[in-house]
Amino acid sequence: MVASACMGQTYLSPPELWRTLRTGSGPHDLVVNELRVPRIALGVMVGAALGLAGALVQTVTRNPLASPDVIGVGHGAAAATVLALATGVVSSPGAVPVVSVLGGLGAAGLVYALAWRHGMQPSRFVLTGVGIGVALSAVVQLYLTDSELEAAEQVKLWLTGSLNGRGWAQAGPLAAVLALCLPGLAWASRAMRPLGLDPDTAAGLGVRVDRARLGLTVLGVVLAATATGAAGPIGFVALTAPQLARRLTRTPQLPLLNAALTGATVLTAADLAARTLLPPLEIPVGALTALVGGPYLLWLLGRRTATR
Predict the structure, then answer these.
(1) From CA 155, how far away is CA 150, in angstroms rounded?
(2) pTM for this one?
(3) I need a surface site. Which of 12, 22, 70, 226 has the fewest CB within 10 A?
């Protein structure tokens, strides 16, 4: 966060940064307090929400290749938000997270209903989510081909996923959702432990496996959909952050707090790179995370194949 606040087209030393933050005035007040700090705060919260959502979904599916953007949740949030922006239903930035959450919940509900057959099998859940995600992506593409040029450009810019031009207006609703989810996350940290066992063993211990899976899924969907509404669809952070956190902590269970911190770190570092790699051009952070996350996904697939 300090590096991101200091670096850019205007470089500040850490003492200059601290002086500007402390006084709230000076020659760098606009750059620091109006542009960089709100963007960094939003990036930290978006990354934390995606890291948490990824950990919850991967626990439910017992699959490190699963994440909200893979199983259709991100596509549902993106489709709902894009259609709302394009049709003028959303007129204020504060309403975007609401539409995004509704779209993500709708997509997740559809996936859950289609995947349910006398219980929820994780593999069927993932495959159903992938199919729903492809269908929702097709809906967005069909709209883009039949829309006005100006509206299509606005939608395409949002679909890349970026923190540019975003700040407290988007960070406020996301902070409220994260605060409301804290009791659910405290419950989730306990509910996740028996789900790492075999379903029959967990059921034998008195755990209501399907109910626990449903609760974790809903919590992960709300976090992922709200993050998507705040910054657009940023891929692969929810996929990579939980696995990196588990490797760093060497724990058998995905650690929620560390997944949140890892997601925040990954997204903040990616946004810093997106701003500074090709000045004065700024790369959308969603495109940068996809460039890094794609090879990581291929590595995970190769590793799983080699261990079988």
Answers:
(1) 9
(2) 0.86
(3) 22
